[in-house]
């Protein structure tokens, strides 16, 4: 049942974003940023944790999960460092994901042949 919940929740999130791309004038970058912010908001109001427990990877892998990781990091850093944690907590908690994206992007650039579209 865990796999089914992850599949349909993750699919519903993807469907929502695809509908936004198809039927609005929002750019993909704005939609992606909106997903991260939505993850932050859902985490702040306490809705994200029950969703993640129910849907597993269907909720934690998409960009909503990145927003949640940043919110949790800020919360922890504020408890430990005070107001300075507002600036450092999100990046500290998401550092592994950001680093992986950069390293894998560099590896992909060496493997693939990039060129400008004409």
Verbal overview:
This protein is mainly alpha-helical. The chain is 81% helix and 0% strand. It has one domain. It has helices spanning 2-23, 28-44, 48-55, 57-60, 63-81, 85-93, 95-111. The termini are far apart.
Q: Which structural category fits the helices and strands? A: mainly alpha
Give the termini separation.
48 Å
Question: Uncertain runs with pLDDT below 50, 5 residues or more?
Answer: none
What overall form do the CA principal axes indicate?
Answer: globular
**Number of extended strands:** 0
Mean pLDDT: 88
Domain module tally: 1
Rg, Cα atoms, Å = 17 Å
Question: What is the share of helical residues?
Answer: over 70%
Question: How much of the residues is beta strand, in percent?
Answer: under 5%
In oligomeric terms, what are we looking at?
single chain
Q: Strand-and-helix sequence, N→C?
A: HHHHHHH
Q: Helix count, per DSSP?
A: 7
**Biggest sheet descriptor:** none
């Amino acid at each position: 049942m865990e796999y089914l919940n992850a599949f349909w929740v993750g699919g519903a999130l993807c469907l929502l974003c695809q509908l936004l791309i198809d039927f609005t004038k929002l750019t993909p970058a704005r939609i992606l940023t909106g997903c991260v912010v939505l993850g932050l908001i859902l985490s702040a109001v306490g809705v994200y944790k029950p969703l993640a427990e129910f849907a597993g990877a269907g909720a934690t892998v998409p960009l909503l999960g990145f927003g949640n990781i940043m919110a949790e990091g800020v919360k922890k850093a504020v408890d430990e460092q005070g107001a300075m944690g507002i600036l450092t907590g999100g990046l500290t908690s998401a550092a592994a994901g950001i680093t992986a994206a950069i390293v894998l992007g560099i590896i992909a650039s060496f493997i693939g042949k990039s060129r400008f579209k004409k």
